[in-house]
Design goal:
The chain has ten helices and seven strands. By secondary structure, the chain is α/β, with parallel strands linked by helices.
Length: 320
């Protein structure tokens, strides 16, 4: 997850379908990733990031979710990007735009899988782009630019594929992003959006539940599209939806189980001893931190009852 919205601090939510929703506190998306909240501190204790900032795509599910701790979480994050890239169906000589590329590794993965394609990684934060260039911008056919997902500074029909992994929920106007993605794609071009979504239009009413407000504070978002809303708005933007896949069982449910396991350990004396044996850096977590983790776990469990983690495949309609 990273940032490519019109401003890092967006003070209004402007989706056309959400015009009647209340004005709320400004977003500060940078705070989602700067370690200032305990959820991201916990993730980083378990080798999450920093080159990739998605939740990961996990092998173990249900009661076995804790076994995902045996593996490096960065591997799960890389797997998520590769699952999304599989949906792109990149061809030789294709031009690929990776929107909200963060610190650049997702674009680098696309390049490694398809070295003959031209890959451009775009992110709003200049610091992210600078890191990406330092780490990955030493090869042919891969470049990074600072840019805004809602105002893509590229000519019409200049890309064959557009990728946006776990970032659109930050955007203050996802409809605008979809229209911009359609504009820069060639007819028949493909857009992959991996994003959180409400299960149904009716589930949007849970946006202001106390638990959901806590989740919104952690991840810094105002509202989500529902799954049907994504299809409607994408259709109005010039896309046909080829498929929509629920990845919750491989992403949000396993990591929720992992969070629950860590929270249980962290909120007991014997559990903290186990964590310190595994990773002495957990010594920096206070009792208050573990209480905050427990609250976040409960809030996310509530939120997951009404939302999904989706992978959408859109194709730009050909001109007639």
């Amino acid at each position: 997850m990273s940032v490519a919205t019109g401003s890092a601090v967006a003070d209004v939510f402007t989706d056309r379908s959400c015009a009647d929703r209340q004005r709320i506190a400004p977003l500060d998306v940078r705070s989602s990733y700067d370690g200032s909240n305990v959820v991201f501190r916990l993730l980083r204790m378990e080798t999450w990031g920093p080159a990739l900032m998605n939740l990961g795509y996990y092998t173990f599910r249900g009661p076995l979710a804790f076994l995902n701790l045996v593996a490096n979480l960065e591997a799960a994050q890389r797997r998520l990007v590769m699952e999304a890239v599989d949906l792109l169906e990149v061809g030789r000589r294709h031009r690929v735009l990776d929107v909200a590329c963060g610190r650049g590794k997702s674009s680098f993965i696309v390049h490694c899988l398809f070295p003959e394609a031209t890959v451009v990684g775009l992110d709003l934060l200049s610091n992210n782009v600078q890191v990406a260039r330092t780490l990955f911008d030493q090869v042919d056919n891969l470049s990074y630019v600072s840019g805004d997902a809602l105002h893509l500074d590229f000519p019409d029909e200049s890309f064959d594929r557009v990728l946006c992994v776990e970032a659109a929920f930050h955007f203050p106007d996802r409809g605008r992003f979809l229209r911009e993605a359609c504009r820069v794609l060639r007819p028949g071009g493909r857009l992959i959006v991996v994003d959180f979504a409400w299960n149904t239009d009716a589930d949007q009413k849970h946006r202001d539940d106390p638990e959901t407000r806590l989740v919104r504070g952690v991840w810094q978002w105002h509202d989500l599209f529902s799954v049907p809303e994504y299809e409607r708005v994408a259709g109005d933007s010039g896309f046909e939806m080829l498929s929509s896949s629920d990845w919750s069982h491989r992403v949000t449910r396993p990591i929720q189980g992992l969070f629950q396991f860590l929270s249980t350990l962290g909120n007991s004396r014997w559990g903290r001893r186990i964590l310190l044996w595994k990773n002495p850096l957990y010594r920096s977590f206070s009792h208050a931190d573990w209480n905050e983790v427990a609250s976040a776990v409960r809030a996310h469990a509530h939120f997951h009852c009404y939302s999904k983690y989706m992978a959408f495949v859109f194709e730009k309609r050909c001109k007639r």
